[in-house]
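Task: sequence design from structure.
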């Protein structure tokens, strides 16, 4: 049974940092691409970042490039999203997702999802 469990969200001020974690189980990790998505109230779910577990190659949305960093810890089966210089527009529920096929920015390409963690950035 595949499980993705996010943690690390919270309420911060603009300019602050947060690190989100996604603990994964039930996957053959080397075969998967792990992604972070976010969804703000009234908006569609959007791609934030992705990492190919086997190679560590990373991909980012233009809106977060240079501020966010996705990484993985093989020993802990955990993917991280380090978020720096947070802005109010980063406020959303952040979701971790797993995709066995290829790197994608489309949410419907991902097979497994976590429950989400709320990030709120005040101005």
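Answer:
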């Amino acid at each position: 049974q595949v499980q993705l469990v996010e943690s690390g969200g919270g309420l911060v001020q603009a300019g602050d940092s947060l690190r989100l974690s996604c603990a994964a189980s039930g996957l053959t990790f080397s075969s998967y691409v792990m992604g972070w998505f976010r969804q703000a109230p009234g908006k569609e779910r959007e791609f934030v970042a992705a990492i190919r577990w086997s190679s560590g190659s990373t991909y980012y949305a233009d809106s977060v490039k240079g501020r966010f960093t996705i990484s993985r810890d093989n020993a802990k089966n955990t993917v991280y999203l380090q978020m720096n210089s947070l802005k109010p527009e980063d406020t959303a529920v952040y979701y971790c997702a797993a995709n066995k096929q290829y790197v994608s920015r489309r949410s419907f390409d991902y097979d497994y999802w976590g429950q989400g963690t709320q990030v709120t950035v005040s101005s």
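The first strand starts at residue 3 and ends at 7.
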